[in-house]
Amino acid sequence: GQSLEQPSEVTAVEGAIVQINCTYQTSGFYGLSWYQQHDGGAPTFLSYNALDGLEETGRFSSFLSRSDSYGYLLLQELQMKDSASYFCAVRDPSGLGGNTGKLIFGQGTTLQVKP
Amino acid sequence: NAGVTQTPKFQVLKTGQSMTLQCAQDMNHNSMYWYRQDPGMGLRLIYYSASEGTTDKGEVPNGYNVSRLNKREFSLRLESAAPSQTSVYFCASSEGKYYGYTFGSGTRLTVV
Q1: Spatial contact of B62 and B81, defined as CB atoms under 8 Å apart
Q2: Which chain B residues are within 8 Å of A45, Cβ to Cβ?
Q3: How far does Cα B95 stand from its chain's mean position?
Q4: DSSP letters along B68-91, please?
Q5: What local confidence, expressed as pLDDT, does residue A92 receive?
Q6: What order do you get walking across the sheet with A18-25 strand by strand?
Q7: Per-residue confidence (pLDDT) for residue B96, from 0 to 100
Q8: pLDDT digits (tens, 9 = 90+) for B38-64
Q9: What is the mean pLDDT of residues A11-32?
Q10: Cβ–Cβ of A101/B50 closer than 8 Å?
Q11: Which chain A residues are within 8 Å of B103, Cβ to Cβ?
């Protein structure tokens, strides 16, 4: 089956850098995605890594190592508004070989940013 | 406003009642999905529709049915609600397998 592991909670100080790790097990790999969800809100798409390496989008970066089945989300210059839950997700390879676009989500990491 | 619209936002049902959660997207996306979110359990796929005219089961389909009415609309029906179906339900759509999901704002359902 497919599974993802990420820490349940992370705490950091405003202005600092924080890394949220995600390890995955899947029978077929089609990329790693990250989503942000504020309390009471809907998840929003942050990034997608299909190939190894670092992808940067403003203060957020996402890294993937397919050989290690590992990725991370890096948040720089933390702001109070970054307090949220962060989910990693992989495509479910079952059904049409992953072409359905179904995602399997990790259980989420709650990031608390303190002043 | 472009995006995914879900109705209702809140609902309380009695055990055994039925209801339909509505979802519509105006981004011309082919794929649509229904997830439920429970505390500490992340998002779990209930049903999905890879394209208009097709639907298939996800991880937790028991107690639910879906209808892909047209390309825009994908509804989720609870035929006989149970307390175990108390959850937050999210509808999502995507342009294709390499694109991220756009989620609706969610339906907070309580079954008493």
Answers
A1: no
A2: 100-102
A3: 17
A4: E-SSSBEEEEESS--GGG-EEEEE
A5: 81
A6: A3-5, A18-25, A70-75, A60-65, A53-57
A7: 74
A8: 987 789 999 999 888 899 999 999 999
A9: 93
A10: yes
A11: 42-44
